[in-house]
Amino acid sequence: MTTALWCLFATALIPTLLAFTGGFLRHKELGKADNKNPRLQYAQATGIVSRAFAAQQNAWEALILFSAALLASYIAGVPQEKLASIALIFVVARVFHAIFYLADKDALRSLAYLVALGSVICIFVMGA
């Protein structure tokens, strides 16, 4: 498997890890994690629990953009060695995005988001 595909795999794990984190934090803050109605429980949550849910939702959205960019680059025949470093930058930025989201560091979170978005744009442009 290429570096870019490993990066796609890692990116796909981020929202799942955030879901587990959110469930743990819901249990800690609200006394239990309601798996029958988790979205209603998240709506009642505050602080880090609310941020964990928001980070998870944002991670799913980023996964879609990254997947589309990689697909476009593969169709266009972009050399894998050119994609590797940009894909790694994307993953690192998304990991930091999640960390900064949980830590309530909004300016750093926005910076990480912009770096990841710039990576996606770069991948699309490489395939153009």
Structure, described:
This protein has helices at residues 3-30, 38-44, 47-76, 80-102, 106-127. The chain is mainly alpha-helical and 128 residues long. Helix 3 packs antiparallel against helix 4 (80-102), helix 3 runs parallel beside helix 5 and helix 4 runs antiparallel to helix 5 (106-127). The chain starts with a helix and ends with a helix.
Write the layout of secondary structure elements.
Blueprint: H1 3-30, H2 38-44, H3 47-76, H4 80-102, H5 106-127
Helix pairs in contact: 1-3, 1-4, 3-4, 3-5, 4-5
Key structural traits:
128 residues, mainly alpha, 86% helix, 0% strand, elongated
Strand content: under 5%
Distance separating the two termini: 23 Å
Radius of gyration over C-alpha positions, nearest whole angstrom: 16 Å
Helix/strand/pairing class, anyone? mainly alpha
Total of DSSP H or I helical runs spanning 4+ residues: 5
Residues in helices, as a percent range: over 70%
Uncertain ranges: none
Succession of helices and strands? HHHHH
Largest sheet: none
| Average residue-wise pLDDT | 92
Q: Estimate the global geometry from the Cα principal axes.
A: elongated
Beta strands, count: 0
Briefly summarize what is shown.
The chain is an all-alpha fold and 128 residues long.
